[in-house]
């Protein structure tokens, strides 16, 4: 079989690709918004419980393709008919409360360290773009790769136009690297899940973060670094008010995240260098 990534350029600039859930934040980004979606009437209590259970199964070590597909189908069908603007508004208004208290200090510091070395920082996630983008903005990321829902007349159809998982995630990284001139052999990737092996295998510097058992075994056998992130920081005070986010404040947030990490972040960076 022909390697679809054959011919990867070895000349170019480095980038760091960060998985979102359990690597940057300590919870599922999609599940985090179940409560505000319920409070605004988008979903009912039964849907919240079903979503929580589906995510729990899919996040278990060794979750198989069928479980992942079941979660994908469940989330997509649950969103059918939702208005895009309403979802974006809910995410923006509740971001401070549902996500920012769960950001790993070590992840924020590591992202800032990559930026200080001139590396592009990219957040990659199976969660939807509407959820991933504001979190990545708050952390000062340069780009995101995320799942995208199909839309029609300002509403979600209940289908995915792109599901960012497994091989599809690594293929998207490959395309972004080709577009932006990243040298994959100089790139870094960070993830907690064995499902991200295609992404980790794609780059020259893979790292396991809070890994599940299967990924831990793989990382140990390959000699990959294994990092433990446990300290959390809040970006709440650094986030701009809803609907006023700008590129300037985004850059300030990224810097603020590293500063907020304080001694924990500095100690962590000394350990990994």
Could you describe the 3D structure shown?
There is one protein chain. The protein has helices spanning 29-32, 34-39, 45-59, 65-78, 84-98, 105-116, 129-138, 167-180, 197-202, 213-222, 247-272, and strands at residues 15-19, 103-104, 120-128, 143-152, 155-162, 188-191, 205-209, 226-227, 232-233. It is α/β, with parallel strands linked by helices and 273 residues long. It has a single domain (15-272), classed as Rossmann fold, CATH 3.40.50.1000. The strands form two sheets. The chain has a seven-stranded mixed β-sheet. The chain has a two-stranded antiparallel sheet with strand order 2-9. A hairpin with a 2-residue loop joins strand 4 and strand 5 (155-162). Helix 5 crosses helix 7 (129-138). The longest helix is centred in the C-terminal third of the chain and has 26 residues, at 247-272. The chain is globular, with a radius of gyration of 18 Å. The N and C termini lie far apart (38 Å). Mean pLDDT is 73; it is low at 28-34, 42-65 and 242-273.
**Total of helices:** 11
Question: How many beta-strand runs?
Answer: 9
Largest sheet: 7 strands, mixed
H/E series: EHHHHHEHEHEEHEHEHEEH
Q: Could you give the distance between the termini?
A: 38 Å
């Amino acid at each position: 079989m022909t390697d679809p990534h054959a011919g990867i350029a070895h000349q170019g600039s480095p980038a760091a690709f960060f998985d979102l859930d359990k690597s940057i934040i300590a919870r599922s980004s999609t599940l985090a918004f179940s409560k505000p979606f319920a409070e605004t009437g988008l979903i009912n209590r039964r849907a919240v419980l079903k979503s929580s259970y589906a995510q729990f199964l899919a996040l278990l070590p060794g979750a198989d393709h069928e479980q992942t597909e079941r979660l994908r189908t469940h989330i997509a069908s649950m969103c059918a008919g939702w208005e895009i603007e309403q979802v974006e508004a809910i995410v923006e208004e509740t971001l401070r409360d549902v996500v920012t208290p769960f950001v790993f200090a070590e992840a924020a510091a590591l992202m800032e360290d990559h930026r200080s070395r001139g590396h592009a920082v990219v957040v990659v996630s199976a969660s939807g773009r509407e959820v991933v983008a504001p979190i990545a903005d708050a952390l000062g990321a340069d780009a995101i790769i995320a799942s995208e829902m199909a839309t029609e007349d300002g509403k979600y159809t209940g289908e995915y136009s792109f599901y960012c998982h497994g091989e599809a995630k690594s293929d998207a990284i490959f395309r972004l690297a080709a577009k932006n001139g990243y040298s994959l052999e100089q790139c870094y990737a960070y993830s907690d899940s064995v499902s991200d092996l295609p992404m980790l295998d794609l780059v020259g510097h893979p790292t396991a973060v809070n890994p599940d058992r299967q990924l831990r075994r793989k990382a140990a056998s390959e000699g990959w670094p294994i990092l433990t992130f446990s300290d959390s920081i809040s970006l709440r005070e650094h986030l701009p008010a809803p609907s006023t986010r700008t590129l300037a404040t985004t850059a300030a947030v990224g810097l603020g995240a590293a500063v907020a990490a304080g001694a924990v972040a500095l100690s962590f960076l000394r350990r990994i260098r």
